[in-house]
Amino acid sequence: MRTIDDRIVHELNTTVPTASFAGKIDAGQTCKQLYESLMEAHTSRDRFIKNCIAQTSSVVKHLREEREKNLDDLTLLKQLRKEQTKLKWMQSELNVEEVVNDRSWKVFNERCRIHFKPPKNE
């Protein structure tokens, strides 16, 4: 799901012209399309990660309630720990996502700032 972020430098180098080729390609339209693709990808990934966090949180809550009823069940404890680890991993994935997004927007702004101005509300 991060393909667009992984390839943004290559994408910009091949689609946004340098000053010597500025007249041959509509850089404004190209940057607008890339902006829309980035926004869609970032929003989609954020939604998926947060959905996974919500689902896993629900499972952890349920397992904690079950664990309180049956303190001697080691299998339940093991399952709870596994889900808690998964939840922490997913929460840390939000931090990774923030770093990836920041990097992509920095590169995008460096190359497209003179060709395209994103809407203020986003």
UniProtKB/TrEMBL annotation:
Top-rank lineage group of the source organism: Eukaryota
InterPro entries for the chain: MIX23
Listed transmembrane segments: none
Residues spanning the signal sequence: none
One Gene Ontology term, aspect cellular component: mitochondrial intermembrane space
Family note: Belongs to the MIX23 family.
Name of the protein in question: Protein MIX23
